[in-house]
Protein 1
Amino acid sequence: MKKTVVTNWGILLLIIMIGCNNQSKNNIDNSKLLAKVGDKELRISALEGMIPYNATTEDSSLIINALVERWAKEAVMLNEAERNVPEDLNIDRLVEDYRASLLKNNYESILIEQLLDSVVTQNDLEQFYESHKAQFVLDEPIVRCYLLKTASSATDLNKARTWWNKLPNQENLQDIQRFANEHGTLSKLDESIWYETSALIEEMPAGFMTASNIHTKKTFVQSKEGSTYFFHLIQILKKDATPPLEYLASEIKRVILHQRKQKFLEDKKAEMYARETRRNNIKFYK
């Protein structure tokens, strides 16, 4: 392997450049060599803008040495790759294909940003859900519930217990919400949201709840390690059941937008192809 050379004077010069004013920087020779691996060279100009302007001399030295060493490792790997290029590998073709892909993807992104209808209405969601309902199956139970965690030393904790045991009384729920705003460290009090049981179990100490017994935990208040946990089950759907639209809404929206994007791009491609055909700009040769 060819020897790697790192020029210490080049690094010192770059450190000086970091601390110089703009006029002094203009006098620095950006062509100065910092490192060389085989026929590959790293010069000061390649590291422009990579050092924080307020870095100390010591920090600048560490950063520069790390950048130079990283460049050298990459250069060594590139040299090895160049020496082991398969005879049937057409680099120019790969580069051209990659360039074409970048250009096409960039233009597609522009078209999508400017022209694609990204609004998904409630009616869109409902139609998709009804048409594909059989495809959606739960991997685990999901629940609607109230969940609150607070410090066991919180004031009015006994009042909160009383309010909690009277759920789903809405007046008591309002009291609980005020209590949660003041003392809650974890609060899930929106009855319209569905949660995976695994996510809820992770929020609680071991043994408070399991996937097999969650359906029996209608309402409980338990304390452990300085925290008190309040739980009230509203509704549960078991594994393999069909989840409700509310649970699937964000996923369905992503699918709708993806399908809409794919159709939009195909239509645009067909439209441009037809246009260029009319202009006689497409030729086929046999």
Protein 2
Amino acid sequence: MKNNISDVLSWEEFEKETLNEKNFPPKKIELFNRLIASTDNFFVIAAIGAFVKGYVMIISKKLIPSLALIESNQKSELDWLITNLSETIKKKYEKEISIFEHGMCACIGGLDRAHLHLMPVTKNLNDELFLDAINKVLKNRRAGISSVEFRGHKLENIHDITQIMDTSGSENYKVNGKQLYYKDIKNLSVENWPFSAQKLVLKGGHYVFFKISSSNVSFLTDQNFQTQLGRQIVFEIEKKTSPEMQKLYEKIKKKNFYANIWRWQEFSFNENIFSTIDDLIDPLQDLSSKNNKFNFNVSKRR
């Protein structure tokens, strides 16, 4: 997927390239031919890094860095789109839906355009399993720990921090910061997302929002995590509950122990991107004919 355009989530590029496709769903997945649907202010694409089928993103047509900055009159449109996409994906794949956003600010181009992830997740999910996945990811990322001091050296790289903490006795190093877990990161109102993060964004802050449709566990935090936290959490859940994902994990790890399957930069899963487009066009077109609001338009088969 070669690209010379700085805004890789450009509405104009997705609209142009998808309309120009001779075949849709496309025979070959490219950067800008993955458009599935659109409304007045948002559009939906099949997302890269689809380690599960049915993974899509809702993106703002206007170039803003987070959904906290949408106009107040656009909230009902966003809610309608989330609800109807979620129900369509849940019915198609017989799964629940995880919804997450890494909201940023004062950024131009690239992946800095506001986008919300919708990713299917196992139905066999309880709150305890969900919490375990969140806490495991936070620990693996050493969330809250800025550095360790070891033998006169200050180490800030995550791999160095992990190596020291996993192989040395705690009396041999000093930790700067505190390991964060789920209970430590819930400090913004999930119910009022995205607007509960608006003041934070306007001041230059980040936030991470995460929820699963069937669970009481969710969070909206101003902790400045590295990106793809949500994808990593979903992957941990799937790895624990899906035999297919466990087999894929073991297969890839045999080839490259350090591979991160949840990182879209390492694995795009084009076959699942194609399947997502192919699977969702017909049910979404049916939705459009029965319950069309906000100029909901679905890409057509060609």
